[in-house]
Fold:
Amino acid sequence: MNRHRIGATALAALVTLSLTACNRESPPPGAAGSGQGGCSGVTLGLAVANLQADFFNQIQKAAKAEADKVGAKVQVSDAGGDSATQVNQIQDFISRQVGAIIYIPAGATAAGVPVRAAQQAKIPIVAVDRNAPDAPADTFIATDSVAAATTLGDYVVKQTNGQAKLAILQGQIGTTPQVDRQKGFDAALQDAPGVEVVAQQPADWAQDKGFAVAQDMLQAHPDITAFWGQADAMALGAAQAVANANLPQDVFIAGFDGDFAGLKAVKAGDVDATMVQQTQKMGRMAVDSACDLVGGKKDVPKQQLQEAFLLTKDEPDKAQQYIDNHP
Structure:
């Protein structure tokens, strides 16, 4: 049976399960608890897109630490980047009747199905980093990627004096961060006609794929003078490809995320700039918001966007500060 068949079967099962669960008369476990937002003794499901990524690991660690503070427990599932796997994992959370689900979608495809299923089962759901546009979670916590990418784009334009042959390594197409980062960066380029996008292609957030795609781009466009990886991992792949190519021109390289590998690369000067997300803060906020929803709080914002911070290779001390104490 192929993956698409498996995914369709899992989706159908998840919807059936949610309809059954929503008929229960009692509120979610812990609704009358004594911790933050009624979270003492509550089990929270944390559905992570891919724990191989440092960004998601930081969210997981911060969420677990915050849960310990408020007396909650966290069950973690790792989708390994596969949406069908994640559907099955959230199905398990619903069958266990967890108090709330913290959800980082593994992809754009069918991302709304787990949200609808959890809500039908009367289980609050908090989306982090990615939100399903057709079925938004009860609250969405993320970086304001449009504003952050615009800031980064403005910096790239300034540092290249408004003249560049730019290649863009895109994230997973259709996911919230990919769409918003593209939108923000494009806004910065509108006033920079001298910055020409000569190539753009998905590299799915991965360093190895970023390296391979950047190599292909350099072969097709050896005059590239700037790369933007929509995540630090892809920017690192581009930096590796540039180093291997022995180009006669300097190439400006920008990333996004501020994960530990990206921070170290900026400090070393291998990457020129990145945007540092408040990753651990978002993990804490996810638990606090889940607890508020479990406790019946009515004024939890539908969207909670956080500022990101520009970091450049001219600020090695600041990079080290972020490495020592990530926001």
About this structure: Residues 144 and 305 are 5 Å apart (CA to CA). The first strand starts at residue 43 and ends at 48.
